[in-house]
Amino acid sequence: MSGQMSQESDNEYSDDHIEDDEDEYDNYYYDNNDDLDLDKPKKSDDPEYFEFDLLKVEDVERLLNEEVEALCTSLKITPSLAKMLLHAHGWQRSLIIERHQRDPEKFLVDSRIVADKKNISQDNIMGLTHTCPICVQQLSKDEFQALSCQHLFCNECWDMHFNIQINQGLTTGIECMGKDCKLLVPEDFICGILKDTSMREKYFKFSFTDLIKSHSQLRFCPGPNCSIVVQAKEPKAKRVECNMCKSTFCFRCGIDYHAPTDCDTIKKWLMKCADDSETANYISANTKDCPKCHVCIEKNGGCNHMQCSKCKSDFCWMCLGEWKTHGSEYYECSRFKENPNIANESVHVQAREALKKYLFYYERWENHAKSLTLEEQTFKNISTRIQEKVMNNEGTWIAWQYLLKAADLLKKCRYSLQYTYPYAYYLDRGGRKELFEYQQAQLEAEVENLSWKVERAEISDTGELENLMDIAEKRRLTLLKDFLEV
After folding, report:
1. Is the pLDDT of residue 28 over 50?
2. Which residues are designated catalytic?
3. Separation CA 242–CA 227 (nearest Å)
4. Exposure of 110 in the CB half-sphere (CA atoms within 13 A)
5. Number of structural domains, the chain?
6. How far is the C-alpha of 324 from the C-alpha of 327, rounded, in Å?
7. Which residue would you say has higher pLDDT here, 337 or 63?
């Protein structure tokens, strides 16, 4: 996008028009978008390909109940105990059966679980009354309950204990009240004690959530107020899109999709960015000075190829260098040049170098995030421009669709490019990092070429733009194939 003096856009849109565009094209990032029929790689060639199912709550309940019933049948145990065992051992039914058959008593003890038949009732209490060690009341033996650990408490204290635990969100992990007792309390024991039906309903709701979280093949959609549960055969770090709320996330960790960066690395990066947010605040400015005439320029598009509206000089938004130097095969602007002798420098010099390195990668990470936001507006601008062209008989709607496809692919490539920077930041020096930086630079160069062309394309540019799209997508897929860890 050309640089320009800070000013409001001349284009205005009605809310209805923007809403229509968003409904029609909001699925810009995903491979299963039929409206934007990009040339997609075969499943075997696509490093991001991932099979998953989107389930409703009732489907998940039926699935879990079937697994519980199967374990009950195999081990001849109650559903309450089967559910506890499945939760404690990640729903690995074959492993549970094998270990239980080997040594049932030891297996249950190791699992902090006891068989229901060993629960102690009031019939085990000597005498007609007993004193509760919690409330110190002497009550009828009918008022007491205990598990096999023989820690007797009155029903009122049990009820209070369960209410407190449930209100704190704890269900499957509720333990006996006995001192240092780690024995888990089964579902039927809890529900037999709870007096408040609303608390019982809350228990089942929280318990269902715990069971889902413990199942390696299931994950809640993290979208706001979304009840969809995703099922996949393997817990891979692959992209999932919810067709209900349109959220996109990583199946393994549940946060925003982050290929090629792995789950542990992106968590470290996001934590570091949060901790160092004040240090990096100066980066958030949306204006810079033209390196030639020094006029203040605002970045109002996703492209990093800037052209000053005053002196017409072309430069890079990131490094402020001449743009013609970025046209080479290696896009140097994306690579941090480390000091090879840093280990021999003083602690203070090393600290400054570490900060310099972090800011280098953070600035580029943040820049691509902002470019994606700006390109959302570019996408709407293109839709509006196409409407105007069609109304003026300058081509048909179908003839202009290539431009929307290009804008869609641009966002897809830039999204992947943004997440290459956390990966590069933590990657150790060596041949692998050199290869990664080379491929990253190639992708970055193609993304900027595509971005520049998308913002200026006309109907006669179909062939050239489609060629740029093909190259950019191949660069992206090549990088992911070589570095996406699953």
Report:
1. no
2. 303
3. 10
4. 9
5. 2
6. 5
7. 63
